[in-house]
């Protein structure tokens, strides 16, 4: 399965460009465009992508009970294999965001995991 469709990638890049070019005081809090998961408990909700560096911004949960906002290199993420079966990253094809990244982050900190 293709991890990022053309439409998703274009939207992630557009979000990145908008936030990079605007004043930090008016930075937009986007809904995540894609939900990725790997292994049994790793989840990433991504809202922006820098096409030059392939650094994506979003909410990251590595299954340790402490989801956090941050950047992840998409190329490195796609190369990762998760034990015990060596499975790679997959996209939730049915994911439809109903909150912004900030709202998912607040909820996930209370729960200890991303519920999306």
Name the helix and strand elements from N-terminus to C-terminus, one letter apiece: HEEEEHEH
* Mean pLDDT over the residues: 88
The total of beta strands comes to 5
End-to-end gap: 20 Å
Write out the strand line-up for the largest beta sheet, numbering strands in chain order. 4-3-2-1-5
The largest sheet is: 5 strands, antiparallel
SS content category: alpha+beta
Describe the structure.
This protein has 116 residues and is an alpha+beta fold. The protein has one domain. Helices cover 28% and strands 25% of the residues. A five-stranded antiparallel sheet has the order 4-3-2-1-5. The longest helix has 16 residues. The chain is globular. The chain starts with 5 loop residues before the first helix and ends in a 5-residue tail after the last helix. The model has no long low-confidence stretch (mean pLDDT 88).
């Amino acid at each position: 399965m293709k991890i990022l469709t053309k439409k998703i990638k274009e939207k992630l890049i557009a979000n990145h460009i908008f936030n990079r070019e605007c004043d930090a005081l008016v930075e937009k809090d986007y809904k995540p465009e894609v939900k990725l998961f790997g292994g049994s408990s790793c989840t990433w909700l991504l809202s922006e992508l820098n096409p030059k560096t392939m650094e994506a911004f979003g909410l990251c949960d590595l299954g340790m009970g402490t989801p956090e906002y941050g950047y992840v290199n998409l190329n490195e993420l796609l190369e990762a294999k998760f034990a015990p079966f060596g499975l790679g990253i997959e996209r939730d094809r049915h994911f439809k965001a109903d909150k912004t990244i900030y709202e998912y982050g607040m909820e996930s900190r209370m729960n200890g995991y991303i519920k999306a």
